[in-house]
Amino acid sequence: MDTETSGRPPARRRAGGAAGPAPAGAPSASATDRSASAGELPAFAGDLSAFAVQLRRMHGEIGRVIQQYAARQNLHATDVQALAAILDAPEPVTPTRLRTLLGLTSGAVTACIDRLERAGHVRRVREDADRRVVHLQYVADARAAARSHFRPLADALRQAGADFDEHELAVALRFLTELNDILARVPGEPAGR
């Protein structure tokens, strides 16, 4: 690990590069991390710089495919992010929820939804129980077009995962989920258009 990048001393390593167990009587890493002052971050057992490079590279590659889709559909990149948020949400998405998910102003999210609706990607549907509540639905034909465009990403995921067993993939998924959950809590200012 690059100690200049992390600001912490390197973790003790076992043969093969994995962090070794703490000496008898020493607190566990999680206990040490929990007791760290508010300004300190927990140790990172991997190569932080290498992880950062690969995450930026993945972001760039996925961003390239998103930009291609946005250009083909005459959409903004933010519009494609909105479509992904609607698709991935475990429950129906309201404009207010979409604004929160994307970190947009009210005006920017309204403009985004208007563009998506005019382009035939989403429709606003009023809830039966409370007609004031509007849900955003991804139009089936538009969803099929997106699925076709983004299929190479799914194929790449299958190909990259072919050399990993179920346990290794579960660990990778757990890491990515934890990373995304922490990133979602990073404060920021609403973006506008």
Describe this protein with a few key phrases:
about 55% helix; about 190 residues; globular; about 5% strand; mainly alpha; 8 helices; disordered N terminus
Please give a structural write-up.
The chain is mainly alpha-helical. Helix content is 57%, strand content 5%. It has a two-stranded antiparallel ribbon with strand order 1-2. A hairpin with a 7-residue loop joins strand 1 and strand 2. Helix 3 runs antiparallel to helix 7 and helix 4 packs across helix 6. It is globular and about 50 Å long. The N terminus is likely disordered.
Task: Summarize this structure briefly.
Helices cover 57% and strands 5% of the residues. The chain contains 8 helices and 2 strands; from the N terminus they run ααααααββαα.
Which structural class should the secondary elements be placed in?
Answer: mainly alpha
Strands side by side in the biggest sheet: 1-2
Q: What string gives the helices and strands in order?
A: HHHHHHEEHH
Which stretches are poorly predicted, pLDDT < 50 over at least 5 residues? 1-37
Spatial shape: globular
Distance between the termini: 40 Å
Compute the CA-based radius of gyration.
21 Å
Q: Figure out the total of helices.
A: 8
Helix content: 55-70%
The strand count comes to 2
* Amount of beta strand: 5-15%
Mean pLDDT: 81
Q: What can be said about the biggest beta sheet?
A: 2 strands, antiparallel
Task: Explain the layout of strands and helices.
Layout: H1 3-6, H2 29-35, H3 48-72, H4 77-88, H5 95-102, H6 106-118, E1 122-126, E2 134-138, H7 140-161, H8 166-184
Antiparallel strand pairs: 1-2
Helix pairs in contact: 3-7, 4-6, 5-6
